[in-house]
Amino acid sequence: QVQLVESGGGLAQPGGSLRLSCAASGFTLDYYAIGWFRQAPGKEREGVSSISTSDGSTYYAYSVEGRFTISRDNAKNTVYLKMNNLKPEDTAVYYCAAQYLPIRSNFLARDEYDYWGQGTQVTVSS
Questions:
Q1: What CA–CA distance (Å, rounded) separates 59 from 35?
Q2: Do the Cβ atoms of 94 and 37 come closer than 8 Å?
């Protein structure tokens, strides 16, 4: 069965960095979209970044472009989200999600994805 496990969250200072991992099991990252989403208290879950494992295309929300980088390691069946220059507004629970390609229209839309991890907390505070 498809399973996604996030790790790497924690507390970071403004301007600091964290790297999140999304380890996949039950399938191989050959033809999937893997997305990172986040949800802050009282807010809707929003798309942060996504990668197509078929051609390596990457997608970023405007709020994180230039600061976050999504990547994959096929040998480890894992997708990463490197977050630099963190801001307090990046504080949220971060989820990874998977969907067999093709995506219908929007790689950063949560309703495109069927499989979700349990999330990892990221807190940015001094």
A1: 9
A2: yes
